[in-house]
Amino acid sequence: MNHHPHAILAPARSARRARRKSVVLLTLCLGVLVAQVDTSVVNLAMQPIGSAFGASVTQLQWVLDAYNLVYATLLLTGGLVADLYGRRLAFQLGAAVLLIASLGCAFAPSVDFLIAGRAVAGLGSALLLPASLAIVRVVFTDQAERRRALGVWASCNGLAFVIGPTLGGFCIAWFGWPSVFLLVVPLALAAFVLATMIVPESSDPADRHEDFPGQILGAIVLGGLVYVGIAGLGGDGASLLALLLSAIAFPLFLLVEDRAQASALVPLDLFQNRSFCGAIVATASMTFGVYGVIFLVPLVWQSSGFLFPQTAGLALVPCALAFFLIAPRSGHMAQHVGVRVMTAGGTAVIACGLLVLAATQGGRPFMVAQIGLVLAGIGMGLNTGPLMSVAVDAVSAARSGTASALINVARMTGAALGVAFLGTAFAMWHGGAEGLRTAMLIGAAVQFGGAMVAWVTIW
Asked: Is the peptide bond before 205 cis (omega within 30 degrees of 0)?
């Protein structure tokens, strides 16, 4: 019997393509880990950094927040760079910048130098994260395959929150605070080298340009909002000025983008897509509640003397583990029950977790608080991948960088506002058990609102 040579070679070629795609996905996941591990470990190092440099509370706050502010401000620019000049190039630049910034932070001679290093790391993440999500959209052309890939991509956020607090706590104890920044270096180097070897380059510059007015106005809007989220509406006037600048810049940004039409930084016709708008709202509501939890629950545990910083970090691991284990399966589950059920249902499960936390006495009994935290992790595992999938499916591959940047803007804005508003609610109700209960009830209400929006808009 004669076999046609093409019939013999086809399965081998198909297997090679599948292996190559797996390595591409591994590379992109390393990129996510670099950005998220960097975020999750720094919280643990605050006390030793403060002691080493004699830093004020405000300076320590900016060690955390310089990263978030620069990252949020430049996300739209990062997405545009990926679409215009190359998604692999943006990913590689992001990984290289994060590597250099992490080395700078580890060997920082002063707290101001450390803050500057964190700001540069924010620039790296603003390039790397939208590019990694956009590459998923371009490489995984089949929708079902893409959903599975996005589930794995999303699970790396959970893995980062397992690796970060666990390894970070031990690194600080054994090697001192600089080691938390050195953790990122081998990951960033591996992501850079693998991207060079295996990730295909893609860009779509046709009918588009840099749109500098849009970039500047967009950066003012996002930077102002995140600054207010970080600093609160305190009495120094800077927050009110940032809010005012955001409010003035926003209508100007819409005007500039409307006039730019097809070449706009953010094409406004994207927001005529109901599913895309639903994904943006649900994503922002999710991070609003979840980041409020991650901020407040360990704070209450530590301030009441119930847990030490290292054990408080470890106490969040079951939540992150639930996220990590469920997210890779979310794409497969979405094929069976539908994206609408996954996104709305997952967000509602997070709300139930927050209600359980509201029923505790300042995060005690510990096991009841763990049930609430694990429910939040399960909800994130169910909805994060499908929400990302809705956002990137809503646009052509040519706009994948922009769509990826916008869904990350929603994540960051929700997180900043969640920490700000839930932190304020916590303080207004005098902290402790009563403050936590109030914040968790508000967070749960926002989650249920996000779930309703997802149910109505996502099909």
From this structure: no
Q: What is the mean pLDDT of residues 328-355?
A: 94
Q: What whole-number distance in Å separates Cα of residue 374 and Cα of residue 208?
A: 44
Sequence-distant (6+) residues with CB within 8 A of 204 are: 83, 84, 397, 398, 399
Q: Can you tell me whether residue 195 is helix, strand or coil?
A: helix
Q: 227-266 pLDDT, tens per residue?
A: 877 776 665 688 888 889 999 999 999 999 888 877 778 8
Give the residue from 51, 23, 183 showing the smallest Cα distance to 105: 183
The domain ranges of the chain are: 19-203, 212-264, 267-459
Residue 126: other Cβ atoms inside 10 A = 28
Cα dihedral angle (306, 311, 317, 318), rounded to 10 degrees? -50
- For 433, counting Cβ atoms within 10 Å of its Cβ (0-12 exposed, 13-18 middle, 19+ buried), the class is middle
Segment (H or E) for 227: helix 212-231
Q: Quick check: 157 and 411 in contact, CB under 8 A? A: no
> What radius of gyration, in Å, describes the C-alpha atoms of the chain?
22
139 token code pair: 């490489």
Fold classified for 19-203: Growth Hormone; Chain: A; (1.20.1250)
